[in-house]
Amino acid sequence: MRPLESEHLSINPPKHRASLARILDKIAHLLHALYLEIAMAAAKSLTPAELQRVLAYIETQAYAQRNRAMLMMTVAAGLRVSEVAGLTLGDVLDSTGAVRCEVFLAAHRVKHGHARTIFINTRLQQELASYIATRTHQDPSFPLFASHRGPRRHFSPNTLAQHFYWLYRKAGVTGASSHSGRKTFLTSLASQGVSVFVLASLAGHKSIATTQRYITVNDDVKRKAVELV
Fold first, then answer.
1. Strands in the chain per DSSP E
2. Which of 2, 6, 61, 113 has the greatest number of C-beta atoms within 10 Å?
3. How many structural domains does the chain have?
4. CA 75 – CA 48 distance, rounded (Å)
5. Residue 58 · residue 71 · CB < 8 Å
6. Is 88 helix (H, G, I), strand (E, B) or coil?
7. Do 37 and 128 share a domain, yes or no?
8. Which domain holds residue 31?
9. Whether 75 and 143 share a structural domain
């Protein structure tokens, strides 16, 4: 009897292995997206008192100005932690050295590959200017928020997410995570009557359904709503 070729005996020839790898990769991405969605939904929106508690705690710690500025980028501009981690000085400073009111992030730097513009309000511009003034290294290519490993070293998104988790926990704010600043940003604007379509654009969401999952409807929001009648 003629022996069977080894490829016929294999239940996993090369082309099947490649297909299986693609399927597993898609499953991994779907599971990661599901995890992020669950984590985002579970994260709390900070009350004004809780935000002040966190800011007060930051003032007692090392790297206070950097940590305050990082937090405010999530709370006052709605940046994702990965976006905060990837910022450079050149992203936020114009040719005169002033803090920009708009920061453009190209598609390759944004989740899901959708380029977007970050709008920086006057108060946050002042926060960033105060922080940047303390920086010894002003090279535009350097990270805006350098880690403790040196002025050229960015935080990784995962490390920065852990940083925020422990920051909230040590400040005594339970239930908060790296999503809380962004969730607070959107909830605060929603409570002031800002359209969900505007919120979706500010957040960099393609679907308003995604934005709606970020918004916390609490008793304060309800009180403001009934006063409009």
1. 102-105, 116-119
2. 61
3. 2
4. 11
5. yes
6. strand
7. no
8. 13-41
9. yes
Task: Say whether both 25 and 68 belong to one domain.
Answer: no
Token pair 């579970």 is found at: 42
H or E segment to which residue 126 belongs = helix 122-132
- Hunting for tokens 């969900």 — which residue is that? 196
State whether the Cα torsion 58-61-66-67 is positive or negative: negative
Q: Which long-range contacts (CB under 8 A, 24 or more apart) does 167-170 make?
A: 167/54, 167/57, 167/58, 167/67, 167/71, 168/54, 170/57
- Regarding whether 173 and 71 lie in a shared domain, the answer is yes
Q: Is 140 helix (H, G, I), strand (E, B) or coil?
A: coil
Question: What is the token pair recorded at 56?
Answer: 């007060």
